[in-house]
Design a protein that fits this description.
Elements: E1 11-13, E2 19-21, E3 29-34, H1 41-52, H2 54-59, E4 62-68, H3 72-82, E5 88-90, H4 95-99, E6 103-108, E7 111-116, E8 119-123, E9 129-133, H5 141-151
Parallel strand pairs: 3-4, 4-5
Antiparallel strand pairs: 1-2, 3-8, 6-7, 8-9
Amino acid sequence: MAEGRKAPAFRLPRDGGKEVTLADYAGQKLVLFFYPRADTPGCTREAIDFTRLASAFAAAGTAVLGVSADPLKAQEKFRDKHGLGVPLISDEQHKMLEAYGAWGEKSMYGKTFLGILRTTVLVGADGEVARIWRNVRVDGHADAVLEAARSL
């Protein structure tokens, strides 16, 4: 996946028991933020930041979806505990994560393993990937994504 290419299609379950697809957002901008694990400190701050800016994203004609490999039950618990206002998608099979380059090799404490790479993708209203942020640092990130969405 690269900037300027068509965003990979997906169909996955989201919190609240519905399914969500890329086609649901045809004709509007879409932010996909991929986070490693629900209810961990960095992921919580990131999801709260995107929730805080939800109305500003909507005003910019941009939908926001959070994506992790957590099961729906964990996603819903995370949403309820922190009052999150952005839809959360569950990709337990890692198909969307892989297609968007958000699944790969990580290391912690000298051990290497596969996991979610904190990544954000901005899809333009034309369905093409407009911007990719890799190895995201949470602080100030949602604000930077909002500025990028406004400039499209």
